[in-house]
Amino acid sequence: MQLTEAQVLGLAPDAASQKAGQGLSGPKKWVTLGANTQALWGECQGSGSKPYQTRVDFSDLNTKCSCPSRKFPCKHAIGLMLMYAATPAVLKDTVPPGWVTEWLEGRQAKQSARKEKEDKPVDAAQQAKRQQARENKVEGGIQELKVWLSDLLHAGLAQVNPQTLRDRENMERRLIDAQAPGLARMVRGLNFSAHGQDFPGSLMRQLGDLFLLLQAFDRLDTLPELLQQDVKTAIGFTQDQKALLLQDGIKDDWLVIGQKTESDERLWTRQTYFYGLSSQKYAMVLDYAHGQPSFNGIYAVGSVLYAELVYFVSGFPLRALVKTSSVMLTEAEPEAHPNLQSMLDGYAAAVAQNPWMVAFPALISGITVSKPDRGPLFQDSQGQVLPTSVYDQDFWTLLALSGGKPIQLFGQYNGGVFVPFSAFVEGQAIALKGGHQ
């Protein structure tokens, strides 16, 4: 397996981990070092009497270390991979020690047990009973939401006060209890701030999306099959992932083109965007972790996986599951929109298929980054301004990387703002901090 420095640094949870890992990327502090086709390993001498034991599984770049760090991957794993990327000959041992083989065998056993559990047949009668009970709860929540929205509009948006905000929180909690998390997120996102840009137009668009969704649910049986599924997904109904994985997916060389990690209290969410080099399709894989961002699979921005991805059912398929994969870590150059208008045309076509699509992934070429007196400016090759609110470390990173020359940007467009997750400069993918917390 080949690794590059940029790909390894893209795995680091923060800038401090990148710097600390670079400090351990030489053999000086390592007591043992080894590598074979399955894994990397090494023992790094820290402040204690026993060296820290670090290992990396090549199958998915998962890591484990005996150090006390709560970051994942830790600085020792990053340093070990950086050393392998720069000077693989330094890792001379080829026979893994017992603590490496035990870890690899343990991971394999857990994966087998998980698959065995997933393969167990379900009780169809109990499943149908649970599904009906949930639909009844959702129906109850929707009826209360309709009453709340009607009262809100009859009172008028000029009457928004602290009680309105408390009512919004109560409505959100009620929808969570009703097992309609999609509706709960839409209610939580309602922006009542009169000081926000485009108020009350932005709020009216949000309320319009809610009304459209509720009307669509009332007429669910009359809608095309794919649109029915998009309505149910927007409300918060889940799809049977076990059944999805039984279907054939798209086998392709998938470029990891961007990533975003967020936390909500102790729940971590990671969105990883893939781009099929042959199919020229985007796919978004969603992963969750509790306590700390230690996700099952590790996907480095800029790496390429040969994988089979299965899409969730939708009029505009985007979310997907990884059915099988193997990491190749090679360079790749994806197709990009030539300008902003091309991206907007793509967004319009996607919304026509799924009106409740939260974010549209897009790669745009020919973006020039500059800083005139009035603030940061992103322009395409035709002089059109890319709407983005980026004015933090990512802006200065992009300004330095581009050096005034046009670059490619990948990110999400939500109908108003484009949020960049990565940049492609001279064929190399650079992960941006905005894609991570």
UniProtKB/TrEMBL annotation:
Compositionally biased intervals (Basic and acidic residues): 110-122
Parts of the chain that traverse the membrane: none
SWIM-type domain sequence ranges: 52-85
Spans annotated as Disordered: 110-137
Keyword Plastid attributed: no
PROSITE patterns: ZF_SWIM (PS50966)
Pfam families cross-referenced by the UniProt entry: SWIM
Domain of life per record: Bacteria
Record keywords: Metal-binding, Zinc, Zinc-finger
Name by which UniProt lists this protein: SWIM-type domain-containing protein
